[in-house]
């Protein structure tokens, strides 16, 4: 078990406020092993996607792990437009990942299209410009 002292947290995450440090300490103490220190993107993604407090050292590692678990491209926007949906997809895909089951090209394309449609809808609801690319429609 890692010593989750204020010093450890400041060294790892920088100069945080007292409330942020306390939140991290509480979250970290829930775990037997410090998964957030792992070099394995899959391990980090498995835990981080089901943890409310961000403990991974970077989004790129989590992103890589999520793509491996889901066996498909994952848009950055999926983390921010509907993180709970993405976390659920990761949880559901973990057994498939460890069994070595892969998605077909059609499944990957379908999921990517769903992500683009979700991003387009998010942009529409939030009055953000979305550049419509030909061939990215459900029809």
What does this structure look like?
- The chain folds into two domains: 1-30, no CATH class; 31-125, no CATH class.
- The protein is flat, with a radius of gyration of 18 Å.
- The longest helix is centred in the last third of the chain and has 21 residues, at 105-125.
- It starts with 5 loop residues before the first helix and ends in a 14-residue tail after the last helix.
- It is built from seven helices and no strands.
- The mean pLDDT is 86.
- It is an all-alpha fold and 139 residues long.
Short structural description:
Helix content is 60%, strand content 0%. By secondary structure, the chain is an all-alpha fold. It has 2 domains: 1-30, no CATH class; 31-125, no CATH class.
Number of strands: 0
Number of domains: 2
Rough outline: flat
Quaternary state reads single chain
How far is the first residue's CA from the last residue's CA? Answer: 53 Å
Task: Give me the strand/helix succession.
Answer: HHHHHHH
**Number of continuous helical runs:** 7
The major pleated sheet works out as: none
Structural class: mainly alpha
Helix amount, in percent?
55-70%
Please mark out the parts with pLDDT under 50 across 5 or more consecutive residues, or reply none: none
- Overall pLDDT metric: 86
